[in-house]
């Protein structure tokens, strides 16, 4: 039954080399993406073929079947499960009455809805324009045909002229604005680096529960919803570890399979936050039957973004709804539910232990009148012992400090 006010959508997929199960998960994910974009999937059409049809994505017989289905159901949109080439999109649009979109346009549309910060909005517009540019045919496309709704958010709403020069000029303009934003972000990160805090980034497949975990670890107010791409702009908060040491925790945009290449390039600077991390918490939804593929997608994208060298802890979330076929990957991992306070405390202990593995151990006796140094040891290091020695009027301190922390010079003076 169709939901009033929502656009009616037929989704179309072609199974080539994928396993049948993986293909079904992919189509199910496309349906979730449609729902996140406020659309309503009214039918699904699939075809098994050795390779995608070069001019129409699906074969001639299947296209006729789609035309009959369109006549019968009168959808607003027909969305294809892969990125269509400019010629495939053109040919399909000529043969179909409803607006034709592909998976990439749908993801870009969701990002356009989700972007909150100036940078996020610029990144989305840049990705949409770079996608649009090779698809301007001949004298340009009739953007007036787009109307409103899914696939038109972002630059579509500004009634852009279908003019290559205009779009290229806008792309250059956005890139310049982004350079300024990136420069500001770099200065902010430099200040954080000077303050020498241990930095943790939460990464993972979209809807794995990253923001839920982020909120409960840091008592922040990140947008938390059972939707794909609920978080787009990176958020940073303080995370207090069991010893009282304050680390920095960053929530990032969710990854997804077949992430548009324009988006990987555009969101590189958003994910720059992750590049400086001392530890990645890779959150995986253990209740999702396709969890293994989600995990591999994230690992592949981290490699593409040159972030696969960073220390990593895999956090298998949603343990209260764990999938029957779930088997954790070898390597450092923790199985938990973000809603369990006990398990969150255990996670903090594991994080603290992993932090100490990347720090230097120290043991010092500091005179009690060295108030500033004692304060730095309390706030900027992981203290394991802090004991007052009455006879010496000093404090015996043992703990762990970041390898390049400026306090290390003072520690040498009081080392035991």
Automatic annotation (TrEMBL):
Gene3D superfamilies: 6.10.250.2860, GTPase HflX, N-terminal domain, P-loop containing nucleotide triphosphate hydrolases. It comes from the Bacteria. Keywords: Cytoplasm, GTP-binding, Magnesium, Metal-binding, Nucleotide-binding. SUPFAM superfamilies: P-loop containing nucleoside triphosphate hydrolases. It is found in: Cytoplasm. Residues 198-359 form the Hflx-type G domain. GTPase that associates with the 50S ribosomal subunit and may have a role during protein synthesis or ribosome biogenesis. PANTHER family: GTP-BINDING PROTEIN 6-RELATED (PTHR10229:SF0), GTP-BINDING PROTEIN HFLX (PTHR10229). Monomer. Associates with the 50S ribosomal subunit. NCBIfam families: GTP_HflX. Belongs to the TRAFAC class OBG-HflX-like GTPase superfamily. HflX GTPase family. This is GTPase HflX.
